[in-house]
Amino acid sequence: MKGIFGLLSLVAALAIIAWLAMNGMKDFTGDKGKNIMGAKQRTERVAVKANLTILNSFVNQYRSMHPGEPVTMDALKAAGLELPECPPGGRFELENGRIVYRGPEGR
Asked: How far apart are CA 103 and CA 107, in angstroms?
């Protein structure tokens, strides 16, 4: 079971690297310094979206392996879920059976 989640993590990391290679570099070729903060924020958003996709895939797999059992963070962690590190000030939470990201403002 851990093998598939390792594979999903690898695929997500490769997707982020590919996206950065295709889109991220254009921010550094124009007006120097102007778009660097925007690039960092966009990169963080892409990382959060990729992490949410992986985490919710884990939730769906947990549901299929444990039908009828409630999905809780403790149950997911006991099944091997490790929450990735969030961008500064954010956190991942379980809400209505799905993992959601709460940014620094709480939304």
From this structure: 6
How far is residue 53 from each of residues 24, 68, 100, measured CA to CA in Å?
21, 23, 10
How do residues 19-34 score in pLDDT, each as one tens digit?
Answer: 877 776 665 555 555 5
- For 99, phi then psi, to 5°, come to -85, 130
8: Cα separation from own chain's centroid: 11
Q: Rounded to whole angstroms, how far apart are CA atoms 52 and 92?
A: 8
Name the one residue in this structure whose structure tokens are 């695929």. 11
- Residue 90 exposure: Cα atoms within 13 Å on the Cβ side: 21
Task: With CA atoms as reference, report the closest residue to 57 among 1, 2, 5.
Answer: 5
pLDDT at 81: 83
